[in-house]
């Protein structure tokens, strides 16, 4: 261990040790995390739908193991770097959910497949089919392949059923590949706040997906795996029943970006906030505001500003004050906390925040109980 995790490790097991953590420290509330993971595993099971949690959120083998222990179909990854880090840490089956364009990365993935990664990849171009096929052949591996479909995000994937059929045929013609279905991640849907609007957005994406699935079926290439969806759409995906598995990621942690999303249409929360960055007040500004030791190198700021808690009481929000500093904007009735005070901050966006930390501190009832490595941290390549 290094950094604050090395200083904090001796505190493991000490009562009230969260209040003594050296900071900035990425902190996971164990009870909230366990409730979130159990909740989605149970919900997907009750709807007869699989779960392939996305590790782009956490990049952590210990978390992936817990998700697999709760019955996940496998673990999804956004980049070869994070996938290979989790593979080396013993995680499998693994799915790469984005197309790539590098022969050397493809060779690495094929090598992992030959060493037992139980690998699934996505393709949206015929040259990518050929590249995976020849790399798998050379490595003596077989790789499962999904056709990546664009149902409105406008990022990667084929748009029409004809394109999907042509690619699925190309995959099925390769001995070293196995055509298993499609991926359709409706990214535009996930953070739509109002339930009625999110439902309309998901319905529109599903109409595009249905046309592709029908086309594949008519061509004798029915998809056995239909992977997609996320934290924002999971309830709608269960209801629609078009996917075979949901790739939710953020549900384990939650963040300020998801805070305004009305999951049920009843404004009741589905998942609890489990991820925090604990910080320390290091100064008071000339204006008397508390300045903390965590800026954009500790908290990804592509989301609404963090809420800040002192001893469990919300006292305001944190404003970005530089790479290494935050500014506490206290709500009415709260004084600026004194230098040395520990504060807990929610995170604007969980995935890129976890990617900024080597370790995650696990706390239960105010006590540090474990520290887990984030093996894929920084490996966004
Ligand atoms: C392909 C893919 N699947 C699933 C997810 C998970 O989404 P969420 O974190 O909103 O659950 C993402 C997130 O960006 C993604 O890119």
Short account of what is shown:
The chain has 381 residues and is of the alpha/beta class.
What does this structure look like?
The chain is α/β, with parallel strands linked by helices and 381 residues long. The protein folds into two domains: 3-28 and 269-373, Lyase, Ornithine Decarboxylase, Chain A, domain 1 (Beta Barrel); 30-251, Alanine racemase (TIM Barrel, Alpha-Beta Barrel). The chain is built from ten helices and 17 strands. The strands form two sheets. An eight-stranded parallel sheet has the order 2-9-8-7-6-5-4-3. Strand 10 and strand 11 form a beta hairpin. It is globular, with a radius of gyration of 22 Å. It starts with a helix and ends in an 8-residue tail after the last strand. The structure holds pyridoxal-5'-phosphate. The site of pyridoxal-5'-phosphate has 14 residues, from loops. Residues 54, 56-57, 97, 185, 187, 190, 230-232, 247-250 line the site of pyridoxal-5'-phosphate.
